[in-house]
Structures are given as structure tokens and as C-alpha cells.
Amino acid sequence: MTRLDFNQILLSESEERLVKIAYLGLGIMGRPMAANLVKAGHDVTVWNRTPKTVDGARLAATPGEAARDAEVIWMCVADTKAVETVLFGPGGVEPVLRPGVTVIDSSTIAPQATREFAAKVRAKGAEFVDAPVTGSKIGAENAQLLFIVGGPEKTVAALDPLFMALGKKVIRVGETGAGESAKIGMNLMIATIFQGFAEALALTGKLGVPPEILVDLINSSMIKSGVTDYKASFVLKQDWSPNFPLRLMLKDIHLMLDAAKQQKLELPSLQQIEKIYQKAVDAGHANDDYAVTVETVKQL
Fold first, then answer.
1. By the 8 A CB rule, do 80 and 87 touch?
2. Nearest-CA neighbor of 274 among 256, 300, 294, 298?
3. pLDDT tops 60 at residue 16
4. φ, ψ for residue 80, nearest 5 deg
């Protein structure tokens, strides 16, 4: 393939749509996302803090090594500090940033930090798009993610073929940071909807209603939601294997509360949910799925 500007590579109908990608972060979401980029035919180099492999991808020792010749640098790591370290820490990607490179961040992090990181990336001539996802582990494995995107309209449009190799839909929310802002709002709803489900299970269980009957009622009525529809089967089996680890949901709750504080906004229900999640962490459930809070609620 002739070396072209990244936007030209993706938008040109006369060129193969194959891109050199550095994928950084191979956790529950990142590893299947990287694997699906390989399946789509892209040239992928991966890095993870604790080394992991992806079939068909090269393994690099540092983020900077992975990103050295990449046209797209794609991150999916745990938190704001991890993104900062991958970008600007020792062995990070900052020294290899250059015009024609696009950084995509699919981590869920603070919107204000996203804007700050993007400004530093653009100072090197590269572009930055925040693209957190929803769809959980199964969506990542089956390339059925929803991308929640912030960034320049032209850049986001150019990235569409890559997003669609991993997902079912792309929604551009607005400019840089808007994707992260929308994502923490969506996760706020997940936390509050599930909390209602957990409390309903606790109360009706004490009143003698079998949990499977309550779930059937919920799924047969207007109360049904994607959250309860997805999580109910795990709850009924008491399967707390992590699709969305509790420690990461608690991290996101802290992002929500911090953002609300910056905006001088009170989120009283979320403040109570944060206490419940902290109790679950203290009980040793940090790496279990957040659905384990069903058990925490029963013990309050």
C-alpha cells in the first residue's frame, strides 16, 4: 500500500482498507477488540502491562515500541492514570506521535483529562478521538460494541471502518471529551438501574417471592431493561465471574461523582450506591462482576 495520510487510507475507495495499528491494553475488553482488528486483516502490534498475546498480532515490550510505525494508536486501559502513563510516561507513545497518526482511547476516564491529553497529542501533530464503548465482554468478543465517540467530525467519519470491525454502531456525541461525558452518564444509569434490581430482589426475597418469578415478571413488563435482561441470568446462577469488574464500576462511579462536583451538582442516589460498592470491595469482591452487589444489599 502506498503511504498516505490516514484519512485518505480510510476514505479512498481505490486503496485496501488495511491499517497499521498499535493496540495498547489487553484486558477483558481490549484483548477481544485487538483480536477482531486482526481478523479484519489489519496489521496489529499489541502491548499490555502484564504481557499477553493475541493470535496474529506482534507483541511489543513498551507502548512506544508498539506505536513506532503505527497509523492508529488504540488504547483500552483501566483508568485516567493508566492512559496518562501509556501516552506520556516512560516508554510511552509521545515521542513517536507525528502528523498522520490518530490516537483512539476506548478507556473510560475523566472527560477533562481526555481534553488535556488530546491537546498534548495534537501539539505533536497527531489527532485524538475518545471512543469508550458499551456492550460488555460478550459484545467485545462478538464485535457488537457501541462506540460513544468524541472528536472532530471528519476524523470520526474516517475511523468508521475500524469501529465497524469491532461494533454494531458508532454515535458521535460531539467534540473531544463528549464521548467520555456520555459514557459516564450511561454507566450512572447502569449503576442506578441495577441497584433498583438488587434492592427489589432483596425485599421480595424476604417477602417470599422466588427470584426467578420476579425476573419473569420484570421481563414481561415495562420494567424490563437491557441491564436486568443481561444480568438476571448471572444473578440467578450466582455467577459473579467478571464481565464488568466491580472495581472498574466503582472507578466509574468516582468519575461521575467528581464530574458532578465540578459542575456543582448533587447525585444523592449515586452517593449511596458508592458506599455499597465500597462495602463490596472491602468484603473482597473487587475483581468480581459488579452484579455481586446483590449479595451486599442483602447484608445491609
1. no
2. 256
3. no
4. -60, -45
Question: Whole-angstrom Cα distance, residue 294 to residue 118?
Answer: 38
- For residue 228, what is its C-alpha cell? 436486568
Q: Where are the domains of the chain?
A: 6-176, 181-298
- Provide the CA 262 distance to its chain's centre, in angstroms: 22
- Report the distance separating Cα 294 and Cα 234, nearest Å: 11
Domain 181-298 has CATH 3.90.180.10: no
Q: pLDDT by residue (tens digit) across 67-81?
A: 999 999 999 999 999
What's the whole-number average pLDDT of the chain? 95
| Three-state secondary structure of 78-121 | CCHHHHHHHHHCCCCCHHHCCCCCEEEECCCCCHHHHHHHHHHH
**Angle (nearest 5°) at CA 158 between 259 and 111:** 5
Pick the CATH number of 6-176 from 3.20.20.80, 3.40.50.280, 3.40.50.720, 3.30.70.600: 3.40.50.720
